[in-house]
Amino acid sequence: MDQTVISVHGEARREVPPEQAVFSVSVSARDREKTAVVARLTRRAAEVDQILDRFGTAVERRETSGVQVYPEFRRRGGEKAASYSGSVTTTVTVTDFEPLGDLLAQLASGELTSISGPWWQLRPGSRAGADVRRDAVTDALDRARVYAAAVGSELDRIIEIADPEAGGGGGHPMMRAMAFDAGGAEESAAAFDLHPQEQTVEARVLLRVAVTEPTVLRG
After folding, report:
1. How far apart are CA 172 and CA 82, in angstroms?
2. Is 188 a domain residue?
3. Which phi and psi (to 5°) does residue 191 adopt?
4. What's the mean pLDDT when you consider all of the chain?
5. Which CB contacts under 8 angstroms, 24+ apart, belong to 127-133?
6. Quick one: which of 22, 23, 42, 46 has its CA closest to 87?
7. Domain for residue 156, yes or no?
8. In terms of C-beta distances under 8 Å and separation of at least 24 residues, what long-range contacts does 77-83 make, across chains too?
9. Is 215 within a domain?
10. Residue 94 CA: distances (Å) to CA of 21, 62, 118
11. pTM metric for this prediction
């Protein structure tokens, strides 16, 4: 006789502190001469690197995510550019949040500098994801025991543990960002007061278990 099989879903949810803060910093330049634009962008990008260097291991990663230099025409269809504009964007990942407000303020004080972020997140493959999946399995087993007990059975063996759908078993961190522009180096560089946002991590699992012969129908 085939064993009775119970199929249940288990769910879990946790609020955990973020592990990384990601932001982007863009420096811009505009001039009638393209060479002047390139020279200013090079200088301002180097100034950004110098500031990032001051914060040592707090900065885990920096990546150039965009370089633009383009002509601006006075009239549409014009053959000669009236001026040139450009920008260089760097994406920065920080793991030490204590100096982050100071870092952002120093960067924002630079000439023609824009900052977007921070975006709070967990590391890829964070332990928080594994922990919440274990909680989801425990929840599924508890539900299966309740169903089994209702028909006079006990759990016998696990047949299958699976994500109920593609992407259904992973974490889903929520992120918050802010954006601001910096007008010039003469502005105050007092540190920003930042509040890291906790991340919501969720998991859902499908569990199929065989149970001992039900007794509720005996009679």
Report:
1. 47
2. no
3. -65, 140
4. 86
5. 128/14, 128/16, 128/171, 128/199, 128/201, 129/170, 129/171, 129/201, 129/203, 131/14, 132/12, 132/13, 132/14, 132/171, 132/201, 132/202, 132/203, 133/12, 133/169, 133/203, 133/205
6. 42
7. yes
8. 82/32, 83/30, 83/31, 83/32
9. yes
10. 5, 9, 9
11. 0.74
Query: Do β-strands 59-72 and 113-121 pair in parallel, antiparallel, or remain unpaired?
Result: unpaired
Asked, for residue 111, whether it belongs to a domain, the answer is yes
**Which residue range(s) make up the domain with 158?**
1-17+124-182+198-219
Question: Taking a C-beta distance cutoff of 8 angstroms, is the pair 109, 189 a contact?
Answer: yes
Residue 60 in tokens = 């885990």
77 pLDDT higher than 70: no
Query: Is residue 176 classed as helix, strand or coil in its secondary structure?
Result: coil
CA–CA distance, 121 with 172 (Å, rounded to integer): 10
Encoded tokens for 187 = 């502005």
Buried b (16+ CB within 10 A) or exposed e, 170-204: ebebeeeeeeeebeeeeeeeeebebeebebebbbb
CB proximity list for 136: less than 8 A, separation 6 or greater? 10, 11, 12, 169, 203, 204, 205
Percentages helix, strand, coil for the chain, rounded to the nearest 5? Answer: 25, 40, 35
Range 116-128 average pLDDT: 92
Mean pLDDT of 108-131: 92
Domain termination site, one of 121, 143, 160:
121
